[in-house]
Amino acid sequence: MMARRTAGRARKSPVRRLGKFSLFLLALAVIAIVLIVLLILVWLKPGPVPPIGPQVPSTPSKERPEAQPADCPDVLTVVIPGTWESSATDDPYSPSANPNSLMLRVSRALSKDFDSSRTEIYTVPYTAQFRNPTNLADRQADYNVSRTQGYKRAAGKIINTNKRCPLTSYVLMGFSQGAVIAGDLASNIGNGRGVLEDGDQDLVLGVGLIADGRRQPGKQNDVDPSPDGVGAEIALGGMGNIVPGITMTGPRNGGFGDLEDRVQSICAPGDLICDSPTVLNPLAAVSKLANAASNPIHAMYATTKYWEADGRTATQWMYSWAKDLIDEAPRPAHE
């Protein structure tokens, strides 16, 4: 009897309990599979079909008024002189700090062709100096101070004009240190980093750079002859702040962005400002750079006649280019 009872209990509990548990697990597995299938079907459900043809830009073109104040120029021409060719107190409409300033050859010729209603010619007054750190007797302003002042004054003029004259177009030009400043303005505008409001990049008609210290061949329209070297600030870019007051900033972040096809760059082969080789001795290179503004090659842009093999000097080329831009610029209505 005892053996029979014990055998009966052994037959009932483990097998039945195991069978029920297996069925429960099977049911859970089936439910899980059904849920997974439903999720996959929802995930694979096709969304709305995108329209065929041109897409609407995510940022619509900026709306502008139909007219602007009567005293607003059609074009603002911003001219930025090079090292030693300006002063912080110079008159932006009648500059006289350096009568031999290279950019005066361009701006004076333009002022004879156009009245101030067609183009306001603004020559940025700034310190325009470069202290030689290897010469203890040099009392000039540091390059960082000079370059920053020039940038802020040029940017301020553009910002104020854009706010008051929303239909005015822009031509930017610079030589040497002034080309670095003009190029930095163009880079920030073209990459949406201020100066002009976003959506106003089309107002920049063109940017002309002579001996740009941040030049990168192929990153803009290079006027022949175009040497293989780079700007001094790129060649010395790895030195950072090794020399106090002189920060070599390297290549421009994003290049010229949306303005790349509107930037013209002229560089003379052998001009260390814009045609620098790899630098091995940064301190010696900075010393050369401090004196490069007076070397014969850097001073040739108004005299040597072989730009684009057409017999014009660099300043004649720049004048002709700017004149065409202003001639063809929009003529907005005035209130």
UniProtKB/TrEMBL annotation:
The chain crosses the membrane at residues 21-44. The keyword Disulfide bond applies. It holds the Pfam family Cutinase. Keywords: Disulfide bond, Hydrolase, Membrane, Serine esterase, Transmembrane, Transmembrane helix. GO terms for molecular function: carboxylic ester hydrolase activity. Belongs to the cutinase family. This is Cutinase. It comes from Gordonia namibiensis NBRC 108229.
